[in-house]
Amino acid sequence: xxxxxxxxxxxxxxxxxxxxxxxxxxxxxxxxxxxxxxxxxxxxxxxxxxxxxxxxxxxxxxxxxxxxxxxxxxxxxxxxxxxxxxxxxxxxxxxxxxxxxxxxxxxxxxxxxxxxxxxxxxxxxxxxxxxxxxxxxxxxxxxxxxxxxxxxxxxxxxxxxxxxxxx
Length: 167
What we know:
By secondary structure, the protein is an alpha+beta fold.
């Protein structure tokens, strides 16, 4: 029997009916057409499905859509500015070749954004530790770590108004 859920996804309020067993990743991809969130393993091993739920990174293959009722969801599609300007983490991934096949990239980017929210000045070891739950089958980790270091520096250098978050 379907259940009604309401949430904000990438800034847009929505209400939909879902089956109670529907995973958040399936809801985002199949019901909302937000296919930037990838399904890599469906077992919480790879991190390709990472999105932000109420500001925290979550593997969306481990969360039911009904658990996100009332939440604020941010996917990779909602990270860039409305004018298409890439988020500093996205731009750094592009510039430092923090991707190869690109399958892990959305989850890596979303996890890195959360890391930089928690720690705006991580070192290489902290970045590698934080991203342990995100697998890159192409072994592009060096470019990913370089991209996160660069994005951190960019975000620290960006002037903000009082109370405004860096990420």
